[in-house]
């Protein structure tokens, strides 16, 4: 390509008439312009050659490192980059997603903090900043991609809260060609892959708040902890994926397991006192198994069926243990001809349960001196379960309407510490008197408008029926807005 411009210049000069004076200004400007373009083209070709050479050298360094079993050289060990001239751009996606809500309720603000059990729910009359989530995703090297999600929000008391919600690496290449057989490894701090709603962030929820049973079993911020997870895409004629994971059982985000002293004080399970036995062996970690299967029912209908189970220690004592179990179903309809994804129908449901095997413990009748006597409280099994079912109909472009119905209940009496100290013998309370375990039913209609794929407006009503004497049946109305800066993440099925 470099030879074309000089030939063109030579032909132009040969074609000039024999003027007695200087070259006319117009011709001279054209010649200067052609000369500049030729020089720019020469530099561009050279830069492209340099980029190809550098990419070839980086690839060879990675191959050499892999064959030798040693780490790659420094030039190839950082994140993959895109070279543009002299600049090196890291392959990193950034986005900021903001959720905010406003509304009112027949319940008081204190009652709303219990009725709206999710930490990112609208939980007070007036305005709520549910969250501002800064997400970073990118390639670490040829072997891993990384994600980090930083969250800021205001709690019902108006205090700022900041946390790293997730930070983990996902494998792209594994030894022995495991990745070619559908195996993937995830390591770091992440949401537990249990059910449909727990693993995803609030901006990916269809409704504006957590279902009641999710908040009770997984806590207000969802179940997440440091750990590792292996996913295996099974070699079956339909989509089938098996997950096995292990995570720390303690922390405020592990509500059903070892939780934390503060979390146990705010939301005690069955009134049992907090006791952290510590990690003595692998049995004191939380272990997960999940199996998901997807099917095409027809050209326009598809479904996905999943089951989850989890086991680990709980905070009731050294012999306390918890089982979580659940099943989930998603059915989708979408016609062959759509208008940017509309119309559509999506049905989603989960049924979740918990068996909380509470350990035995003793209570001193005098907190300052146990010599006056003790009360022994035996082992017990507390059971909690619930479900939600939701239907979302995209009835015309950018518009959708939905309805969610849910119910949560419990069995197994909770411990009453005050009555025990007053009477000198073990006393218990029916779960219907516990606002975190009572019978609760909720009905939630929803209207959604998408101005674009980067914004969403929602109007939702919640009507709660409750048996707890601390709460009243209440109607709440919430209006919400979501807007996103940066890359738009792909949504799960």
Structure notes:
This protein has a single domain, classed as Porin (Beta Barrel), CATH 2.40.160. Helices cover 17% and strands 44% of the residues. It is built from 7 helices and 22 strands. Strands 3-4-5-6-7-8-9-10-11-12-13-16-17-20-21-22 form a 16-stranded antiparallel β-barrel. A hairpin with a 2-residue loop joins strand 20 (440-452) and strand 21. The radius of gyration is 31 Å and the shape is globular.
Report the span from N to C terminus.
49 Å
Poorly predicted sequence stretches spanning 5 or more consecutive residues: 1-21, 60-80
Q: Could you give the order of the helices and strands?
A: HHHEEEHEEEEHEEHEEEEEEEEEHEEEE
> Biggest β-sheet: count, sense, barrel?
16 strands, antiparallel, barrel
* Spatial strand arrangement across the major sheet: 3-4-5-6-7-8-9-10-11-12-13-16-17-20-21-22
Q: In CATH, what is the class?
A: Mainly Beta
How many strands? 22
Q: Judging from the principal axes of the Cα atoms, what is the shape?
A: globular
* Tally of alpha and pi helices: 7
Oligomeric state of the chains in view: single chain
Q: What fraction strand? A: 35-45%
Computed CA radius of gyration, to the nearest angstrom? 31 Å
**Structural class label:** alpha+beta
- CATH architect. name: Beta Barrel
């Amino acid at each position: 390509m470099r030879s074309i411009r000089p030939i063109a210049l030579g032909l132009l000069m040969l074609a000039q008439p024999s003027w007695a004076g200087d070259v006319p200004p117009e011709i001279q400007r054209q010649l200067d312009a052609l000369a500049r373009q030729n020089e720019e083209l020469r530099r561009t070709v050279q830069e492209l050659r340099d980029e190809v050479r550098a990419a070839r050298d980086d690839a060879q360094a990675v191959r050499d490192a892999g064959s030798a079993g040693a780490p790659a050289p420094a030039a190839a060990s950082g994140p993959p980059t895109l070279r543009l001239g002299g600049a090196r751009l890291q392959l990193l996606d950034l986005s900021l997603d903001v959720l905010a809500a406003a509304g009112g309720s027949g319940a008081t603000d204190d009652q709303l903090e219990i009725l709206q059990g999710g930490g990112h729910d609208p939980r007070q009359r007036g305005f709520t900043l549910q969250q501002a989530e800064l997400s970073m995703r990118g390639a670490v090297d040829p072997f891993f991609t990384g994600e980090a999600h930083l969250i800021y929000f205001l709690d019902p008391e108006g205090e700022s809260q900041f946390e790293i919600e997730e930070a983990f690496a996902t494998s792209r290449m594994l030894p022995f060609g495991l990745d070619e057989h559908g195996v993937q490894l995830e390591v770091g701090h992440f949401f537990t892959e249990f059910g449909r709603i727990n693993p995803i962030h609030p901006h990916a929820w269809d409704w504006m708040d957590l279902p009641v049973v999710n908040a009770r079993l997984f806590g207000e911020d969802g179940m997440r902890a440091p750990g590792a997870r292996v996913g295996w895409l099974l070699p079956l004629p339909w989509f089938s994926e098996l997950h096995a994971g292990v995570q720390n059982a303690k922390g405020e985000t592990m509500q059903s397991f070892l939780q934390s002293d503060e979390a146990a004080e705010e939301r005690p399970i069955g009134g049992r006192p907090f006791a952290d036995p510590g990690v003595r062996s692998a049995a004191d970690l939380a272990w997960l198994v999940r199996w998901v299967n997807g099917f095409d029912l027809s050209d326009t209908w598809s479904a996905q069926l999943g089951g989850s189970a989890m086991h680990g220690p709980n905070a009731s004592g050294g012999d306390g243990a918890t089982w979580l179990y659940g099943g989930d179903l998603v059915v989708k309809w979408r016609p062959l001809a759509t208008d940017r994804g509309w119309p559509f129908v999506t049905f989603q449901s989960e049924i979740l349960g918990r068996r909380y095997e509470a350990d035995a413990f003793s209570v001193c009748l005098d907190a300052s001196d146990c010599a006056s006597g003790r009360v022994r409280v035996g082992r017990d099994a507390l059971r909690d379960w619930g479900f939600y079912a939701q239907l979302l109909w995209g009835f015309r472009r950018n518009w959708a309407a939905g309805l969610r119905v849910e119910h949560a209940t419990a069995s197994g009496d909770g411990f009453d510490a005050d009555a025990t100290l007053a009477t000198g013998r073990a006393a218990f309370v029916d779960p219907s008197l516990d606002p975190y375990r009572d019978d609760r039913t909720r009905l939630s209609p929803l209207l959604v408008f998408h101005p674009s794929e980067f914004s969403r407006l929602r109007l939702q009503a919640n009507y709660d029926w409750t048996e707890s004497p601390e709460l009243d049946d209440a109607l709440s109305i919430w209006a919400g807005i979501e807007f996103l800066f940066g890359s738009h993440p792909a949504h799960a099925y």
